[in-house]
Each structure stands twice: as C-alpha cells, then as structure tokens.
Amino acid sequence: MPTSLTWYDWIGPEIKCLDDDDGDATAPTIISGLPSGEGIKYAFVKWSARGDRLAITVRDDASSTTSLYIIDALNGQAIRAAEGLRLNAVTGACPYLWSSDGEQLLLWCVPEANMRDIDSKIDRLFTPPEGPVTKECQGKKQETRTYANTLKSPYDDKLFEYYTQTQIVAALMSPSGAASTEWVGTSTL
User: Could you tell me the pTM of the whole model?
Assistant: First the structure.
C-alpha cells in the first residue's frame, strides 16, 4: 500500500533541549536502549503532553515487526513498551496516541488471531479471483488502476479489511517507563 510515510535509518544518539526555564542551554541527553543496525528504521516520533517522554516506533525489516519504544527525556533510557504486541502501521498512520496527561498510550495493534499462522490463514480465508481480470482498450485511452482507488473486487475488500483490523490496547506508563497493557477493543482502521 503506497504511503508518504518516511522511515529513517537513524534518529541520532541524543536529545538536546534548546533552553531550560532560565534560558540557559542544557547538556544533551544520550539515548540508550534503542535497537540499531542493519534493517532497523524509525518513524512516528511524538512527545508526551508533559514533555518528559518521547515515543518512537521502530521497524525491524528482518522480522517485519513494528515496535514502540518510550524514551525518558531526562536520562535517555529507551524501553520497549507493550512487549509482545505488534503495532499496526499498515495505513501509514501513527499506530499510537498519547493521552492528554502523558501517562497512557492507546496502541493500534495487529490482533493476536491475525498473528498466528499468517501465511496459511490468508490462503484459507481468501479465494483469489478466478483468472486474470483484463480489459481491452481498442486503441483508445483507457483508465488505469490508481493508488487512490485500488479496491476493485470483493477479494480486495477482504484483504483490506483483514490488514486494517486492529486490536486497541491501552498502555499505562509506570514511573520506571514500563507499560502495563489492557485490551480495549477491536476495530478497523
């Protein structure tokens, strides 16, 4: 699915506050605990409402997973939030939302049922269209398939619904940065 989302190879090793309350420059905080290396990409960087935490999604190309990390702005320590959950960023939209108090996150996750035996499940759930779908243009200009309107068949509709089905999870952040999670519901993005 095409998207304008940009995944970055590296976000930098430090957080630097431009000024503290007195107008003085502060020393940068070194970030530690984030995965790095070949196939690791970063996106969706968002500050909590209080500005004491930074959330970032990390994509690992090797395992095709998107995870959420929370960085403490004071000490730079990054902790993986919601261990074992896989964020659903299939539409290119941010797969999480900070609460107004900065203590909770709502996470859009791939439902557990969709995670098990993914390849054979798709084969069982969906019957591909019989034969190719062709059109003859008879020497005239013909409308081509565009990214803005790709759902052309019931099969396309089923695939879209399958990939955008999302489990909504509330993650409560503890003072240590760890998150306890609670299932909220299931929805389609």
Answer: 0.69
